[in-house]
Amino acid sequence: MKMKGNTKRKKSNKSSSKPTTSSTQTSSSSNLLRLPLEIFLEICKSLTPVDLLSLSLVCKTFYNDLCCGESKTIQEIWRQSRLTFMPFREMGPPEGMNEREYIRFLIENKCYFCGSKTRVTRIYWERRVRSCIKCFKENTVLEGIDNRIKLILQRPFLQNGSLSNRFWRDQVESKYAELCNVIVKDQNEWIYDQYQLYNILQREIAERRREDVLSRENQRSQRIQGISEKLDLMCEEIDENGLVKYQRYLLERCPSLCKCYTYERPFSERG
Ligand SMILES: [Zn+2]
């Protein structure tokens, strides 16, 4: 790794660190900024992927330190953080993505198309996007697809239900345009080559989907555990008359609690 000198890091702090909202934050950020890069990176090795992402957004200096795509040392910090704190995320980034971009893609619940951060999204590895169901439907097609293109793209969506036969519109269109540019006598060979290529890709996608499912199940069980622990604490609360404030059986009848179990986000105090 090409380390930046301490002097350079300190110098860049003056011009690039943005003011933060609280004095405590400013003070802790400033303390980190004063550290030599090597020590700062040692600290980063123990951070979770979410913490690393948050830290990289604090100021330009941290961003430069942590988002250097070419540095093997930096990428290794992100990789180790993923392997340590993200169960069932053992596969490395797909081609063209570095570790940081991959982690961000896995963590950030943001629809690629509409930008919504509140809707439930899914990763669609064939298109390598996160999408909400509404945008998925708007950007995929079910009918009117050339059979040769269908053969190449190989029914990419294997989820259950009515979405299983849908294809991304832009992929269908670009593949069809490519096919039209191939001389007719060479088309069969081209289709065969493309089929082989997509076949390899499909195997990788199947593995990534398996990790998605395991990771979601793990998150859900952690969420249920978090909620249950919170309920236990609530049921221990006593009011001013010395009576128990909440009854567990009543809390569990609450519709919003029942709904809360089904979300996939980690359970937080606010939640
Ligand atoms: Zn959307």
TrEMBL record:
Residues 1-28 are annotated as: Disordered. Residues 1-13 have a biased composition (Basic residues). It comes from the Eukaryota. Residues 29-81 form the F-box domain. PROSITE patterns: FBOX (PS50181). Pfam families: F-box. Residues 14-28 have a biased composition (Low complexity). This is 23275_t:CDS:1. It comes from Dentiscutata erythropus. The lineage of its organism: Eukaryota, Fungi, Fungi incertae sedis, Mucoromycota, Glomeromycotina.
